[in-house]
Amino acid sequence: xxxxxxxxxxxxxxxxxxxxxxxxxxxxxxxxxxxxxxxxxxxxxxxxxxxxxxxxxxxxxxxxxxxxxxxxxxxxxxxxxxxxxxxxxxxxxxxxxxxxxxxxxxxxxxxxxxxxxxxxxxxxxxxxxxxxxxxxxxxxxxxxxxxxxxxxxxxxxxxxxxxxxxxxxxxxxxxxxxxxxxxxxxxxxxxxxxxxxxxxxxxxxxxxxxxxxxxxxxxxxxxxxxxxxxxxxxxxxxxxxxxxxxxxxxxxxxxxxxxxxxxxxxxxxxxxxxxxxxxxxxxxxxxxxxxxxxxxxxxxxxxxxxxxxxxxxxxxxxxxxxxxxxxxxxxxxxxxxxxxxxxxxxxxxxxxxxxxxxxxxxxxxxxxxxxxxxxxxxxxxxxxx
Length: 385
Prior knowledge:
Number of strands: 15
Largest sheet: 9 strands, mixed
Order of helices and strands: EHEHEHEHEHEHEHHHEEEEEEEHHHEH
CATH class of the largest domain: Alpha Beta
Shape: globular
Mean pLDDT: 95
Number of helices: 13
Low-confidence stretches: none
CATH architecture of the largest domain: 2-Layer Sandwich
């Protein structure tokens, strides 16, 4: 399997390395990236490609690839996906795949023309053991109708410091923190509820990573994660970032279910918890700590698992990276295609929700998503009719 990468950062380097542990025929033969942050990781693991191209078009014109991996800054994803689709190459793209509503609709048109199966996405939480077990509970109707969800994604100070220094600190590049970091979570809860949101509301801001909250000691804690690379700045509390460092969102779904979501990027003991409450029972878990526990309406325990112990806690997205790449490898190499738990349309939908959450935060208004869903569906149908 010959692979090319556009945007060879740490994430794509890690994803490729995990794939090689599953498929020894995977071979990263070329890349496009003026300053590949993933170079050290790749050289350490003996897979840094020798062929470097200045543009994606050049690479695709000169190399016969089986898979294009897209790990470029978010605002470039659509351009790179478009080039890959027109070249007829299967694509794996990191999330989020677009950064604004217009890009979402443009990508929808491309999917209608080229097919949804041409683009695979790195929404890794759908592949996690937590997601697999929750889907099983839902399929067996142990939860009944989903009524409400309480959830969070919090990251440690060093991780927040990375966001304040990396290109992701600028909304024009990343699409904003809710989109860049939390689209995984939004997609996971879309899966659980089983329908689209109708309205969202949100509050938040940048109140932690500001000059007056700069600590007097242990400042290196906020800058220990490697930084060198495109658009990097070595400032944390006096960063020129325009993203938020904390945010809450309230989501109402078409079936009446609700979600309260909270994210913060300066949490000493990080967690990624959720509690899903239905008419027949409830399930609660934490991706970071690893537990997953479900009760029926009589408070009988119907599931009690510790996936943290089984999958090595936080490494590799709680074991989900490995599970994702096993499924994707089967999907790419088997004559009978493996059905993947998440697709590019799911990624567009999660992204649109994150964008509307940020619109609510900025405008102070409750945002209705009805028009966005109408426009998305119209664009998806352009080439299907």
